[in-house]
Design goal:
The chain is built from 8 helices and 8 strands, in the order E-H-E-H-E-E-H-H-E-H-E-E-H-E-H-H. By secondary structure, it is an alpha/beta fold. Strands 1-2-3-4-5-6-7-8 form an 8-stranded parallel beta barrel. The radius of gyration is 17 Å and the shape is globular. The two termini are 29 Å apart.
């Protein structure tokens, strides 16, 4: 599973590039635009072909899920702290049928202790971030966890296999696509490297299980 986070500030030809990314197989696009208000989020979504709306997860303005057939909602760390203790009340006015719910974490112990059953969790920084200066990687190992955890921070096609070996069930990227000279080719390279690393890991698991029997 590959999660692509939106660039905070719009970049030239962003919507055109995003359409190409969807065509290349992007399934999880996390829309995080902290400088946009509700109407600007609507304008952004309206500029995207509606057939791709079900691949978009919103970080802000969760009520958008009532107006668009989105994939799901994401809770950034502070939003989770503020609201998830009373989820019934929070979700009361949101149409959540069939939607995903995810959240960001920066501490694996906090992630494990969280009692809310998110569909998946973004944990960062695994490696030193490409897009955030001074955001040093922690090399988290989550092999002990039964939760679906997506590794973020400094992910490139050269460390995807290592990310999976650390127990992550997928990768999250931002700078590894948007900061590259050719975002589309960068995504294709990441996707290819991820699929190869995933298949290699699965074969190793099957081989080990066979030995165990």
């Amino acid at each position: 599973m590959i999660v692509l986070i939106a660039p905070e500030k719009d970049i030239p030809n962003e919507i055109e590039l995003l359409h190409q990314l969807f065509q290349e197989g992007l399934e999880y696009y996390h829309l995080r635009k902290p400088f946009k208000d509700y109407q600007e989020h609507c304008d952004y979504l309206n500029s995207i072909d509606s057939k791709y709306h079900n691949r978009i997860v919103v970080h802000l303005h969760h009520e958008l899920i009532n107006d668009y057939p989105l994939k799901g909602l994401h809770f950034q760390e502070q939003m989770r702290i503020d609201h998830i203790d009373n989820p019934g009340q929070y979700f009361k006015k949101l149409n959540m049928y069939g939607k995903t719910i995810s959240s960001s974490f920066h501490d694996p112990q906090v992630l494990e202790a969280c009692e809310f059953e998110f569909d998946y969790h973004l944990l960062s920084p695994v490696f030193t971030s490409i897009s955030k200066k001074g955001y040093e990687g922690k090399g988290f190992n989550v092999n002990h966890s039964t939760k679906l955890i997506i590794g973020m921070g400094g992910i490139t096609n050269t460390n995807i296999a290592e990310t999976l070996s650390l127990g992550f069930g997928g990768i999250g990227v931002l700078g590894g696509v948007w900061n590259m000279d050719n975002p589309i080719q960068s995504f294709i390279n990441l996707k290819t490297a991820y699929e190869q690393a995933w298949m290699k890991k699965r074969k190793a698991q099957i081989k080990n299980n066979t030995k165990g029997n």
